[in-house]
Amino acid sequence: MQITNRQHLHATPDRRDFLYGLGASLGSVALSSLLQAEEDGSPSNRATETVHHPARAKRCIFLMLEGGPSHLDTFDPKPELNQRHLQEFTRSGKQQSAMSSGKRYFVKSPFDFIKAGECGADINSTFEHLQTCVDDICFYRGAFVESVNHPTACYHVNTGNRFGGDPALGAWVTYGLGTDNNNLPGFVVLPRTSYPQGGAANWSNGFFPAQYQGTPLRPEGSPILDLNPPARITRERQRDNLDLLAALNRAHLAQRPGRSDLEARLNSYELAYRMQTEVPDILDLEGESAATLQMYGIGQTKTEPFGRKCLLARRLIEKGVRFVQIYSGNWDSHDYIQRAHGSLIRAVDQPIAALLKDLKQRGLLKDTLVVCCGEFGRTPDNGQRSGGKSYGRDHNADAMAMWFAGGGTKAGHTIGATDEIGAKAVECRHHIRDVHVTLLHLLGLDDNRLTYYHAGRFKQLSQFGGQVINELIS
Q: What is the largest CA-CA distance in the chain?
């Protein structure tokens, strides 16, 4: 399988009558996605020419539940906690919670669980829609991370580096595979109104050329500012301006051989021009049927924000975007977990189920990898607060909720296990780097061969190597 040509074109700050503004505008979108691959022409900094092995997935949609959803209250029930509820619990060493102080107590889940589907998967009954999809899902209970601090943990899951500054997972994927549509960014991010902890570094290009960073689309108002030109500017006039600008810039470039960044600027204007034609149609959901909008929960106050993101993700991957990441926030439930998690589950449940069903009925799920996780899990205990009635959970790096669908993963299975109280992954236990290596493997990429020369050495997503989790692969 041949990898597509990565002529990712990136824009510099625009001229007023062309890109019509800076910031979260068409100019900045072009800047974040379009610098051409020749920005660094050395062979060591080019992506591979072919996939390393036959790919099971061609693209990825990554659902990031930022804040740390509780595995104990979503997909990994622990009956033992019912027996130990409010018994005193002592933590020590690595297990000590970053938020702990004073006495601590076991906390049972306030939710009911069912065994859903033919596979009998354990799932919180509040997931009324997702429970109908479990036969297409692979639940994984063996993952763990290293940090219980939100920003560093988000960086760890999203970039493989707890301290940030490295390319995001989506950047590595687009570096390796390119894009199937040169009129669109290869890596698109759909954040919530406020960015996740750690900010835009969660979808950074890191030490890669700038075309590999994620392009965020605004969740409210116009997803891309200045997408449509002012009424006084016609397409013909834009074309004439571009041709003149290109002539002037090429004359400038001719006097400065070897400046590939100048060539990238030229190409960035061209992509921004093409995006003005293609992007509005993708972002416009009015062409979807009433049944589809209803399926995603669009038109319902609770589900519409996340439903729009999920539907937009499907439209983006249909048009050739390689990696789409969707954010849901506020899963950090230290108190009142029944109310907090319950509300969040109802906000994402219908949209996620709709996404899986929509991909499946369109024949896309088999080669689209869908991933869902947070930055860490939660503890089986918490301090007794507000008279002991506001039960919640603290941060836990040793166990977390994670599932996969499509893209060659083992549908209808639950892989791995945590201990009897859910404090630690103990079966099929793997570090998050192995999850990253497995995702690349499903996309046809070998982490040990997908490298980039930077700061005197060849770097890779896993930092220093990892292993494929074969149990997750069908």
A: 78
In the numeric block, the tokens 């000590």 are attached to 96
202-250 pLDDT, tens digit each: 999 999 987 788 989 877 666 665 566 667 777 777 777 778 887 888 8
Helix, strand counts (H, E) of the chain: 11, 20
For residues 187 and 212, the answer to whether their CB atoms sit within 8 Å is yes
The answer to whether residue 114 is domain-embedded is yes
CA 334, CA 198: separation in Å to the nearest integer? 20
pTM for the whole thing?
A: 0.84
Domain annotation covers residue 11: no
Q: How many domains does the chain have?
A: 1
Instruction: At 48, list the tokens.
Output: 């591979």
> Does residue 196 fall inside a structural domain?
yes
Residue type, 235: R
The per-residue pLDDT for range 23-72, each reduced to its tens digit, is 344 444 444 444 433 344 333 344 444 689 999 999 999 999 999 999 99
Question: Which residues span the domain enclosing 461?
Answer: 52-219+291-472
Question: What CATH number should be reported for the domain holding residue 326?
Answer: 3.40.720.10
**pLDDT at position 131 over 60:** yes
**CA of 291: how far to CAs of 131, 325, 456, in Å?**
20, 25, 55
Q: Residue 21's pLDDT band (boundaries 50, 70, 90)? A: very low
Asked whether 403 and 130 are in contact (CB, 8 A), the reply is: no
Tokens of 327: 């954010």
